[in-house]
Write a structure and sequence with these properties.
By secondary structure, the chain is α/β, with parallel strands linked by helices. The protein has helices at about 5-10, 30-35, 80-90, 105-115, 130-145, 160-165, 180-190, 195-205, 215-220, and strands at about 45-50, 60-65, 65-70, 95-100, 120-125, 145-150, 170-175, 225-230, 235-240, 250. It has an eight-stranded mixed β-sheet with strand order 4-1-5-6-7-8-9-10. The protein has nine helices and ten strands.
Length: about 260
């Protein structure tokens, strides 16, 4: 074939048949593995309460009662709030507490321990200066199938502003989180409140009523005081919150940067 003919073919593709390529058929292993459930380890727990590692290896103070900061005197802030919540959840649930600050734990060590205990529910302390760092713990927990929750002085006034940019976070517990946490996990596990926890719920809110176990999940969440949660898919969702005793769940107004909300309760 002459060079002149080659150039003609290049310039006028219509002179030759252009074969139609088939649509790509990428392999999909979903059907093969969708029913595979990884066995839970002997050390697996129901609930993990975490004070995650710091972003820089320094000693940070995290507490539900104060804004987070680096300690100026190298003091380890005791995680009394996490211990108190663990006491409320035990013995109905198997609970573990990790204070990564006190244990001088790196993120690699934290991840190894997280994968060893395989929590179904992960609750983390959150502060404004370490927000993105703290959400990495939620990312790790979400990757092993846990439902993630956050508490603290940052998420209480800025629940929507935290849930929107961090889709790995499922729930925010506003204010004093103890009873909200107990009621939330009972609701997700389809268990009625009982014992001292039932008594405290009744005494904390005269309008409180036990949540029937046969209610849909969305209706259960709507009855939990102090809870903020998202409903909808990752691109279009509303964030809901029950603020007052006896009040109904309300959708929090989207911030300027949020996607249009379409789901409703």
């Amino acid at each position: 074939m002459s060079e002149e003919l080659k150039d003609t073919i290049k310039q006028n593709l219509g002179t030759r048949r252009i074969p139609k390529l088939p649509e790509p058929r990428f392999p999909d292993a979903t059907i093969a593995i969708q029913d595979i459930v990884a066995p839970r380890a002997p050390d697996a727990v129901d609930v993990l309460l975490a004070n995650p590692p710091s972003p820089d290896g320094a000693i940070w103070i995290r507490s539900q009662h104060r804004v987070g900061r680096r300690t100026r005197e190298n003091m380890i802030w005791p995680q009394v709030s996490l211990a108190q919540m663990a006491a409320l959840l035990h013995p109905r649930y198997k609970v573990a507490v990790i204070d990564a600050i006190a244990e001088r734990m790196s993120w690699k060590e934290f991840e190894e321990k997280l994968r060893r205990v395989q929590p179904k529910y992960y609750l983390t302390q959150v502060t404004a200066p370490t927000l993105t760092n703290d959400m990495y713990g939620c990312f790790l927990a979400k990757s092993i199938g846990a439902k993630t929750m956050a508490m603290g002085t940052h998420v209480t006034p800025m629940a929507r502003q935290t849930l929107e940019p961090y889709p790995v976070l499922d729930f925010v517990l506003r204010g004093e989180p103890e009873l909200t946490l107990v009621e939330l996990i009972d609701a997700l596990e389809n268990l009625p409140s009982q014992g001292n926890n039932l008594k405290m719920l009744q005494e904390s809110d005269i309008t409180w009523q036990p949540i029937p176990v046969d209610l849909p999940v969305a209706e259960k969440l709507a009855r939990i005081r102090g809870l903020v949660w998202r409903r909808g898919d990752g691109c279009s969702h509303k964030v809901f919150c029950r603020l007052q005793p006896g009040g109904r769940a309300m959708a929090l107004k989207p911030s300027a940067r949020s996607a249009p909300a379409s789901a409703s309760l």
